[in-house]
């Protein structure tokens, strides 16, 4: 019965713009599970100090989706589909150390957290952005470029390539290295890494709307190289698979 229902669902894939709905349905039925094994397992990851070992349940993505969809929305213009072929691994845990800066919006410091991180950069600044129109952000990055910071930015293709309000183009003209990502339906990350040891992330898009009107959050982990390094590895993967800004 499960197999018959799975075939029916698979036949309706073109109807859905978001393949995640199909994912969750088939996962509930156990279709993506490896035979004879569970999708949950104990995974050990070492904390920052290296003295503590954390045990936690983690989803084995490789066991859940054994084959990829034939759904063009996953390609989104890039037939190499690099995002689908990224190495699969579980979540990791790090100990929080140093200073953590927090902010919320509307108008409760979320964008201030972001700007503080940009302003602190002296050597490198790596940015992943989905919606990307905030002028405060633009001005802070331009100032970083002018003081000699090596700035790299990856943005979502759909939200930025044909958007006259996107600050990706002006930042490229100002000297930042900008690339766009189109190997997945969305590049929905929002994070800023300064000097490879401080990282800001959260729900906050880099837009005036997110800063002034939406309920959002932003967090910066200051001088925490293991956490920043983990974000940096994600950034490097996207950077290598992205396209130069036109």
Structure description:
The chain is of the alpha+beta class and 246 residues long. The protein has a domain at 101-244: Endonuclease Chain A (Endonuclease, Chain A, 2-Layer Sandwich), CATH 3.30.870. The chain is 32% helix and 23% strand. It contains nine helices and ten strands. It has helices spanning 2-11, 20-29, 61-64, 110-120, 135-146, 157-160, 168-174, 208-212, 225-240; strands at residues 40-46, 53-59, 99-105, 124-129, 150-156, 177-181, 191-194, 198-202, 216-222, 243-244. The strands form two sheets. Strands 3-9-8-7-4-5-6-10 form an eight-stranded mixed beta sheet, with helices on both faces. α4 packs parallel to α5 (135-146). The longest helix has 16 residues, at 225-240. The protein is globular, with a radius of gyration of 20 Å. The model is unreliable at 9-77 (pLDDT under 50).
Which tags fit this structure?
two-stranded antiparallel ribbon; alpha+beta; eight-stranded mixed β-sheet; 246 residues; 9 helices; Endonuclease, Chain A
């Amino acid at each position: 019965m499960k197999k018959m229902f799975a075939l029916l669902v698979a036949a309706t894939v073109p109807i859905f713009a978001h393949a995640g709905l199909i994912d969750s349905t088939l996962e509930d039925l156990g279709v993506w599970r490896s035979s004879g094994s569970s999708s949950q397992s104990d995974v050990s990851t070492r904390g920052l100090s290296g003295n503590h070992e954390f045990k936690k349940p983690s989803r084995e993505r490789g066991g859940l989706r054994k084959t990829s969809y034939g759904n063009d929305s996953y390609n989104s213009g890039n037939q190499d589909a690099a995002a689908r072929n990224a190495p699969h691994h579980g979540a990791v845990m790090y100990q929080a150390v140093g200073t953590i800066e927090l902010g919320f919006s509307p108008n409760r410091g979320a964008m201030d957290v972001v700007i503080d991180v940009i302003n602190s950069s002296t050597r490198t600044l790596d940015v992943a952005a989905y919606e990307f129109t905030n002028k405060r952000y633009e001005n802070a990055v331009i100032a970083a470029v002018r003081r000699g910071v090596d700035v790299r930015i990856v943005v979502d293709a759909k939200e930025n390539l044909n958007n006259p309000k996107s600050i990706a183009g002006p930042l490229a003209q100002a000297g930042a290295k900008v690339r766009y990502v189109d190997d997945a339906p969305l590049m929905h990350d929002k994070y800023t890494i300064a000097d490879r040891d401080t990282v800001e992330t959260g729900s906050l898009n880099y837009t005036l709307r997110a800063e002034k009107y939406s309920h959002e959050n932003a967090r910066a982990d200051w001088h925490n190289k293991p956490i920043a390094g983990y974000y940096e590895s994600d950034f490097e993967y996207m950077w290598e698979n992205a396209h130069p800004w036109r």
